[in-house]
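Figure 2 data, in text form.
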Amino acid sequence: MKIKSIVSLFGAVPVMLGLNASTVHAQQSACNGEDLIEKLRVEDPARYQRVLDHFETIENGNGVFWKVEKPGLPVSYLFGTAHLTDWRVMAWLPRIRPALEASRLLFVELAELNPSKMASPELLQQYGMLPGGETLDSRLTAEERKLLGGLSASHGMPWFSARRLKPGILAILLGIPACAKISILRGEKVLDAQIIEAAHNNRIPVIGLETLESQLSRINELDQDRMLAGLVEAARAGGQFTEDIFETTIRTHQTGEIAMILSLMHELRNEFPHNTASMETIKNVLLDIRNIGMHERALPEMEKGGVFLAVGALHLPGDKGLVKLFQDSGFTVTPLKPGR
């Protein structure tokens, strides 16, 4: 098995959707991943129980839709979105719509999700390319170059282009199954974009908590050596597990238990030490640090009430997640279960 980055789908960087869409040219089949947590339940109950036990230790891990309250204020909401078009992700839209339409303001990561702007060659050159014509070839063995070349080719990206990218950018681009990008190429809108569109239709102001530049700048702060080692380890393990992790993550989002995917990855840490190390730098830089900035920017409006805040779902759980940060700011934050 291998661990691929799920953060760009459920936590970190919607800007990568535009860059991802720009890299896929070949026709791909639909994703055919397997829910690995369900597989463990059936085939390895002991490991499944360890996943459940770890999940219980994650603070605020059970929920992607939360009510945020403080006496004397209109109710606000916190929703953990996914940068995807999958129908199971989209099923959240009618559930959250009444809360969104009752709000006076929508906060999102990026206020404008325009793939053409997000795939800007200027942005990619500034933040994504290795300096001075450098390539990754000098950091890799012949076998590793062949592995990464095959992986990038499966995403429609020739190695002579992929090798010029910084490891953090490349790891996130290749961490999303190519099959998951086809709907975006067809022009289908991800859940984030549909939430923004619903707000516009109801004349609700939309404010971005971040910019394209700030997101890409954060990616450059990742430990690039760890990211490259994790990418090689992932490529060596093969391709099916990428789709399996993708499917598993969608299922956990569907049930409101997105943090369960972190527990699965914890269970696999000994099999994939380099991916575990790369995930640590991702969590620190792309989740925990950004959570602080998101909380600080949103807090003045949250103190007025009537806010709907929708960001990637992995920004919510944990002792450094947004739910905890708002709890520490004096709010009562209560999970709303799927279908409620």
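Caption note: Strands lie at 65-69, 76-81, 105-108, 206-208, 307-312, 332-335.
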